[in-house]
Design brief:
Strand content of chain A: 35-45%
GO biological process, one term (chain A): quaternary ammonium group transport
CATH topology of chain C: MetI-like fold
Helix content of chain A: 10-25%
CATH architecture of chain C: Orthogonal Bundle
Structural class of chain A: alpha+beta
Distance between the termini of chain A: 49 Å
Largest interface: C-D, 105 and 103 residues
Radius of gyration of chain C: 24 Å
Structural class of chain C: mainly alpha
InterPro entries (chain A): AAA+_ATPase, ABC_SmlMolc_Importer, ABC_transporter-like_ATP-bd, Mo/tungstate-bd_C_term_dom, P-loop_NTPase, Transp-assoc_OB_typ2
Number of strands of chain A: 20
Number of helices of chain A: 8
Chains: A alpha+beta (about 350), B alpha/beta (about 375), C mainly alpha (about 300), D mainly alpha (about 260)
Radius of gyration of chain A: 25 Å
Mean pLDDT of chain A: 86
Largest sheet of chain C: none
CATH superfamily of chain C: MetI-like
Low-confidence stretches of chain C: 293-298
Mean pLDDT of chain C: 82
Oligomer: heterotetramer
Order of helices and strands of chain C: HHHHHHHHHHHHH
Number of domains of chain A: 2
Shape of chain A: elongated
Shape of chain C: globular
CATH class of chain C: Mainly Alpha
Organism (chain A): Zavarzinia aquatilis
Largest sheet of chain A: 6 strands, mixed
Strand content of chain C: under 5%
Helix content of chain C: over 70%
Distance between the termini of chain C: 45 Å
Pfam family, one (chain A): TOBE_2
CATH topology of the largest domain in chain A: Rossmann fold
CATH superfamily of the largest domain in chain A: P-loop containing nucleotide triphosphate hydrolases
Keywords (chain A): ATP-binding, Nucleotide-binding, Transport
Chain lengths: ~350, ~375, ~300, ~260
């Protein structure tokens, strides 16, 4: 089915936007730019203000300060119907009194598109999401996955400048969610849509988004490509929120500016940072960067004779908990069936794996 | 008139409930047409039209058509079941009723409300052909000027079902006799139970009782209450009670004898303590002016003419006050209605006029009802 | 978004209408009720109505008592029937047919419906005739008609459809999955009714209770036609004061007293029905995590 | 979901149906009984009363008057009542509780008193009594009932639906017209039907605020003074039959709607 890309999505600029409910600051001076055709995910725990931010872009919530521009023109104070954006709601909010086709065509009809044209484009959009056969069905008869696709088709049908997705796949069960995430991402890229996705599921953000904005307590913690966030978390929150890892105490022990040395749990580690010699720092160690083997089995281990506190076997991999000179450290190893809790082991940290926060 | 609201006529893709809207629109459409048609009718009515506030059974189509054909005046009706309902409406003004029916039992109260106008009996040829006793009856003339034309009358007394009781009754005391417990019916409206009990106790002026006398009557009625099956509200209610055998003895109106034709042996008692006589009369209201005034008086004259009285007797068994009407009716109907020797009824009956202090009577009757 | 002007827009037509066509007359009534013989602001009327020795408080209580028994009877009829129609009858066709049938009985004028009861409960009415025919009784039961029972049966007949419709709508909106979950967790059909359906249908029940109670306290037909000697209720007395005694001040006083008493009774009725319905869902189940003691159910 | 047979609610529903139909059957039997008094045993069979009913033009006229008034009241009361329901449920304005309470006050006032009061007000304001004032009076009587019927579904309405419509480009009134009202329509329609029935059967307000208007209840109420003639029973039986047949005809629609709005 050849799909003509919709006209290119608009750019979105969120400029020093904030929103307070009484004295609770839901969104605190957030600035964010989204390029045309780009998919950005806003990731954060519940109550981090991500849904409020999305609501303000969609016009459902009135911002207190700052400016929001879509395709260069400000949408501040405009009612939702005047904003060139369309939302896929968390519980889909499909119209119960209309059929699938009527739901998808609703946006076109109210924007004055003639009935025949609206019907054609609605059917076309249903074909894209693979639900053409259900056009005349009643909403009540659809499955969760089907409803999600109808909600997406309804929003895309109006060719919005910005597509807003409010935890779109939250209500679905595990296996479908994975498949739908990839499918949705592929669809959005193929249609050249600019999309802003709100989710609390890290996997969803990583699978779908070109860039991720992590929010916490109304503030924007960090904004960048997924790999960069994972590799170089700017704050402790981002470090722990994305993936898992342990934060350990360390002290700058010398080394050159390009290869600064840190003393961590009795061993010396290279970590890029401009902390002055002697100053203490907190470092992030990813479990997958720590390789663990029985005592004496590694040529140049970072830490020698550490105690293996716990082993949790999760199918293909197992999570190990190590205790080195009073510091606990997490490690991940493929297999690891031969390791027994309490055993003394050696562990090697991958080069430059530790990150100074 | 047709309310073409935004809601109903808008198209919109309401696939599922579109038929409902068409149905609602159709209903509204009907309303528009019908209202238009009704609204228009008065405008095309004949030159003069009068409105008669009365009971539905006094204004049956076959009773009014002779007058409307002869005089060309249209008589519209406004039905009530109790004259006081119309009086309340007239008091507020704008009721639009030119002639109303009221009875001797209530006309003073209506006059007291200042809603009536005097009439000129000289303009009514049938006035002389009326039964003499009615010309001088109370409650027709006020401040020396005639206001009402009585066109139907009756007497009230004890009525009993001979088949059931098997004895003749000639004493009001029967209504208070425990022997007939659960078979007695007493009137609810127009303070009539108070008046009947006053007659029973031999009180001299049943319509102008003092508070003491009223208390005495109230006590007797409260004592009687357990014996009573029901207080009947109107003649229809009473007819049903007697005809279905719910009660066998009651204080009732003359028209109750009408149920004889259904094979129920009801007999009219002439109690020693006496009976009540009443009439229903037509009164002109203050809303009748100029042309409608003339038309109203012509209509009032028709009510005591020969045709109306005859139809009244034939169809609903009411008694006319017009001798010419009695002459026009067939003989055995006159006999069953007792119109052949109306003097024997009227001789022993006291004219029932409205009580001098209605609120005192109401308070007394309230006590009985609330007991 | 400035929703305020739009919310005022939706309220203004009705508030305007009752402002000039209802509040004015009501205020007129109120003023009239305070105008006794002794000039304008006098409480004579209220003293007469509520003072000791006056039997009107008794009439008022009798009226509200009758109306409450009508509400209870309506609940006894409408709630199980609505539950059966909404939750146990599968085909929407049967549901629609039964509801249409009850609605049709509503179309017949109230007077004809009330007079019909005379033909049913009377001395030689349907009930007595059938019972005598079957030899169950030899003498007709006289107490059936012209007494408080006949009035209550007729009033319930004229009012219970309100309850049936509101409770049916409320129960239809209860998601079947709640019932399935209840049964799944071991509750029998009766328990599901008392513990899940009833509490969730509470709004329908108390709205229905109000819709039944309100017309019943101000109806004149049933007490007058079927009440026999026990016919005197507040509404009939108000009618007598207004029309027969033409004593509008007293009539207004009685009306205001009825409105106030009625209003209080409605509030109480709504609260009680709502609380009872919710309570039936909580007895023996309610728990609070707060108390440290072993699961002390409150 | 499997639905077993609950014998108690089924028995109550059966009893309710008998209770509902008993008066209808009774007065229909009486309408074929020669005797104008309502008692058993019936003394024969006749259709005279039906003949007399059709001959008596008054019932026809007052039927037209009653239907006209009831239809107009239905339309007005439904529109105003629905708007007030939105006010009660959704408006966020000061003193809303008080105003909402005020809106339902007409429910509490006995109809007779409301009627007398309305007439005095209309005359004082100088409104000529007639068709218009009866309709106005009935709208004041019926609207609170409509509001109550619409409020129930409005409380349950999912606001996200309105947000979705606005988000897709529908203005506030378009959203109302295309999404909110159609979904609330079952409640609104039952409110409209109730308004029609209330107005059609109402006597007091029609009597007091009307002039030259003889609505059906007025005629019946006045006729019953001399004993409710069986012609009225004949009318009642006839109208019930007509409506029952119409209801059966419209049943498939009602069924689909009931299923639809599950």
């Amino acid at each position: 089915m050849t799909v003509s890309p919709l006209r290119k999505g608009h750019a979105l600029e969120i400029d020093k936007v904030s929103k307070a409910y009484g004295h609770f600051l839901a969104v605190d001076d957030v600035s964010l730019a989204v390029e045309p055709g780009e998919i950005v995910a806003i990731l954060g725990p519940s109550g981090s203000g991500k849904t409020a931010l999305l609501g303000m872009v969609g016009g459902r919530i009135a911002a207190d300060g700052g400016d929001i521009r879509i395709g260069g023109n400000s949408v501040m104070g405009l009612p939702p119907e005047k904003i060139d954006a369309a939302t896929v709601f968390q519980d889909y909010a499909l119209f119960p009194h209309l059929s699938v086709l009527e739901n998808v065509g609703f946006g076109l009809r109210v924007r004055g598109v003639a009935k025949a044209e609206a019907r054609k484009r609605a059917l076309e959009m249903l074909a894209i999401v693979g639900l053409e056969a259900l056009a005349d069905r009643n909403i009540a008869q659809l499955s969760g996955g089907q409803r999600q696709r109808v909600a997406t088709a309804r929003a895309l049908a109006v060719h919005p400048g910005i597509l807003l997705l409010d935890e779109p796949l939250g209500a679905l069960d595990r296996q479908i969610r994975g498949r739908l995430q990839e499918e949705l991402a592929r669809l959005l890229r193929r249609l050249n849509v600019t999309a802003l996705l709100v989710t609390h599921d890290q996997e969803e953000a990583f699978t779908m988004a070109d860039r991720i904005a992590v929010m916490q307590g109304g503030k924007l913690e960090q904004y960048g490509p997924p790999a960069e966030l994972y590799r170089w978390p700017a704050t402790e929150f981002v470090a722990t929120f994305l993936g898992n890892g342990t934060i350990v105490e360390g002290r700058r022990a010398g080394g050159t500016d390009d290869l600064p040395l840190f003393e961590v749990a009795g061993a010396f580690v290279v970590a890029r940072s401009r902390v002055a010699v002697g100053a203490s720092a907190r470092l992030l160690v990813r479990p997958e960067h720590v390789e663990v083997g029985p005592a004496g089995s590694q040529p140049a281990p970072t830490w020698r004779d550490a105690r293996l506190a716990g082993v949790v076997n999760t199918g293909g991999t197992s999570r190990l908990t190590l205790e080195i000179a009073g510091t606990t450290l997490e490690a991940l190893s493929l297999g690891g069936f031969d390791l027994v809790p309490g055993q003394t082991v050696d562990c090697t940290l991958a080069a430059e794996a530790a990150v100074v926060l | 008139m047709k309310r073409n609201t935004h809601l109903i006529s808008a198209p919109g893709p309401w696939a599922q409930s579109r038929r409902d809207f068409l149905k609602t629109a159709a209903l509204a459409g009907v309303a528009g047409i019908a209202a238009g048609h009704l609204g228009a009718r008065p405008a095309f009515a004949k030159a003069s039209k009068i409105v008669w506030g009365t009971n539905a059974d006094y204004a049956q189509p076959d009773m009014l058509s002779p007058f409307q054909k002869a005089s060309g005046i249209e008589v519209a009706t406004e039905y009530f079941s109790d004259p006081s309902e119309l009086v309340t409406k007239l008091r507020a003004g704008g009721a639009g009723v030119h002639v109303m029916t009221d009875g001797s039992y209530h006309s003073d109260i209506t006059y007291g409300e200042g809603v009536l106008k005097p009439i000129d009996t000289a303009k009514m040829p049938n006035w002389d052909k009326m039964i003499p006793a009615f010309k001088t009856a109370g409650g027709l003339a006020f401040d020396g000027k005639p206001h009402g034309i009585p066109y139907a009358w009756g007497t009230d007394s004890v009525v009993y079902n001979f088949d059931a009781l098997k004895t003749e009754i000639d004493d009001l005391g029967a209504l208070f006799d425990p022997k007939y417990k659960g078979q007695i019916a007493m009137p609810n409206g127009l303070f009539e139970s108070l008046v009947a009990t006053a007659l029973y106790l031999g009180i001299e002026k049943p319509f102008a009782m003092s508070e003491k006398e009223l208390d005495e009557v109230t006590k007797v009625l409260i004592k009687q209450k357990p014996l009573v099956r029901s207080y009947w509200n109107d003649i229809g209610d009473l007819k049903n009670l007697m005809a279905t055998g719910e009660v066998t003895i009651c204080w009732g109106w003359k028209m109750l004898l009408d149920i004889k034709q259904h094979g129920i042996d009801v007999r009219w008692a002439h109690p020693k303590q006496g009976e009540l006589a009443w009439y229903d009369a037509a009164f002109m209201t203050k809303e009748a002016e100029g042309e409608t005034e003339e038309a109203t008086m012509a209509f009032m004259d028709y009510l005591i003419g020969d045709t109306y009285g005859a139809v009244l007797g034939k169809s609903i068994g009411y008694l006319t006050t017009s001798t010419s009407a009695i002459a026009a009716m067939d003989k055995d109907l006159v006999k069953t209605l007792g119109l052949d020797d109306y003097d024997s009824f009227l001789a022993k009956a006291a004219w029932w006029t409205s009580p001098t202090q209605p609120d005192l009577y109401q308070k007394a009757w309230d006590k009985v009802l609330n007991a | 978004m400035n929703e305020t002007w739009r919310s005022w827009l939706s309220g203004t037509p009705w508030l305007l209408m009752i402002g000039c066509f209802f509040i004015l007359p009501l205020a007129g009534l109120l003023l009239m009720s305070f105008s006794g013989e002794g000039g304008f602001p006098s409480l004579d009327n209220y003293r007469v109505v509520l003072g000791e020795g006056s039997d009107r408080p008794a009439v008022l209580l009798r009226t509200i008592g009758t109306a409450l028994s009508v509400v209870l009877l309506s609940i006894a009829i409408a709630v199980p029937a609505a539950y059966y129609l909404a939750k146990c009858v599968l085909s929407a066709r049967v549901q629609a047919a039964v509801l249409a049938l009850v609605a049709v009985t509503f179309l017949v004028g109230p007077l004809v419906r009330t007079v019909a009861w005379r033909g049913i409960l009377g001395r030689s009415g349907l009930v007595n005739t059938v019972l005598q025919g079957l030899g169950v009784i030899d003498e007709p039961i006289m107490a059936l008609l012209y007494g408080r029972p006949a009035v209550i049966v007729a009033m319930t007949y004229n009012a219970f459809p309100f309850m049936l419709f509101t409770v049916f709508l409320a129960m239809k909106m209860i998601d079947d999955r709640y019932l399935a979950a209840g049964r799944d967790l071991g509750a029998g059909p009766a328990t599901v009714f008392w513990r899940i359906v009833l509490p969730l249908a509470a709004p329908g029940i108390w709205t229905g209770a109000i819709l039944v109670f309100v017309p019943t306290i101000s109806t004149v037909l049933e007490p007058e036609i079927l009440g026999g000697t026990s016919g005197r209720l507040a509404a009939t007395e108000i009618r007598d004061q207004f029309f027969h005694a033409l004593n509008w001040p007293m009539g207004s006083t009685l009306t205001i007293v009825l409105i106030v008493a009625g209003g209080v009774a409605i509030l109480a009725l709504a609260l009680v029905t709502a609380a009872l319905a919710r309570l039936s869902g909580r007895i023996g189940i309610a728990m609070r995590a707060g108390s440290t003691g072993a699961g002390s159910a409150r | 979901m499997r639905r077993e047979f609950h014998w108690f609610p089924a028995a109550v529903t059966g009893a309710m149906l008998v209770y509902s139909l008993l008066p209808i059957v009774t007065f229909t039997l009486f309408s074929f009984n020669p005797s104008p008094f309502y008692a058993f045993p019936l003394t024969g069979f006749t259709t005279d009363w039906y003949v007399k009913l059709l001959a008596d033009g008054r019932i026809g006229d007052s039927l037209v008057a009653s239907v006209t008034i009831a239809a107009s009241v239905m339309v007005a009361a439904t529109v105003i009542g629905t708007m007030f329901a939105f006010f009660v449920v959704r408006a966020a304005v000061p003193f809303k509780r008080v105003l909402a309470g005020l809106g339902f006050l007409p429910l509490v006032v006995p109809v007779l008193v409301l009627a007398a009061g309305l007439q005095v007000t209309f005359v004082e304001i100088g409104l000529p009594l007639g068709f218009g004032t009866v309709i106005l009076g009935h709208v004041i009587y019926a609207t609170p009932f409509v509001t109550l019927m619409v409020m129930a579904p409005l409380y349950r309405y999912n606001p996200a639906l309105d947000a979705a419509a606005r988000d897709l480009g529908a203005g506030p009134f378009t959203t109302l017209r295309l999404v909110t009202l159609p979904i609330l329509w079952p409640g609104i329609r039952s409110g409209a039907l109730l308004a029609f029935l209330l107005s059609f059967n109402e006597w007091a307000i029609a009597f007091f605020t009307g002039r030259g208007v003889n609505s059906l209840p007025m005629l019946v109420y006045s006729l019953q003074r001399n004993g409710l003639p069986p012609t009225v029973l004949a009318y009642a039986a006839l109208s019930t039959a007509v409506v029952a047949i119409a209801a059966l005809a419209v049943l498939p629609l009602v069924t689909r709607l009931l299923r639809g709005s599950k």
